[in-house]
Amino acid sequence: MKILKPALGTLILGFSLTAFTAAAQSSNDARPGTGATTTQEATQSPRAGGSAAMTDEERQRRYDAERKRCDNLQGDEKDICQKQAEANRDTAKAESERSKKTAEANRDANKKEKDAQYDVEKEKCDAMSGDAKDRCIAEVKTRFNK
Predict the structure, then answer these.
(1) Which of 5, 38, 82, 127 is the most exposed place for a label (fewest CB within 10 A)?
(2) Could you give the number of structural domains in the chain?
(3) Is 92 part of a structural domain of the chain?
(4) Residue 21 confidence (pLDDT)
(5) Which domain range does residue 124 map to?
(6) Rounded to the nearest 5 degrees, what angle is found at the Cα of 84, between the Cα atoms of 44 and 70?
(7) Which residue in 115, 49, 37 sits closest to 83, CA to CA?
(8) What is the pLDDT, as a whole number, of residue 81?
(9) Does residue 1 lie within any of the structural domains?
(10) Does residue 6 lie in a domain region?
């Protein structure tokens, strides 16, 4: 009986902790976007809205809105946000071209997307300094075969 009571107490405590953890995780899952930084929010991909079907006017409106959102930021965050807005615009244009043309257009679109993303990553490295910046740039160049 002396051994059974502590084992039963431990078992009950374990179940209650498991239930509490599951409840906490499910409440975090119910609130998408919590904890995102301003930079993360500003650098979302344009694909969520179906960029392949966007017209030139729609792309320009989206770009202008993203650039306007960057006005609230300062320093490196603003630079990164602006580069991401340009990359999103270029990616949307590349997606439009991809949907219209053949394999050659696909290669061109992929290259434009890759170049746009390279510019964003390089801008993120520019926000760093010293050895970290050098390592970051070297890693980005390696990743993008530049």
Answers:
(1) 5
(2) 1
(3) yes
(4) 58
(5) 38-143
(6) 90
(7) 115
(8) 93
(9) no
(10) no
The answer to whether 137 and 125 are in contact (CB under 8 A) is: yes
Predicted confidence at residue 44, as pLDDT, reads 44
Instruction: Answer whether residue 111 is part of any domain.
Output: yes
User: For 10-14, 103-107, 125-129, which range has the lowest pLDDT when averaged over its residues?
Assistant: 10-14
CA separation for the pair 114, 135 (Å, rounded): 20
pTM score, two decimals?
0.42
pLDDT in tens, 60-104: 999 999 999 999 899 999 999 999 999 999 998 888 877 776 777
Which amino acid is it at 130? G
Q: In the block, which residue shows the tokens 């999103």?
A: 88
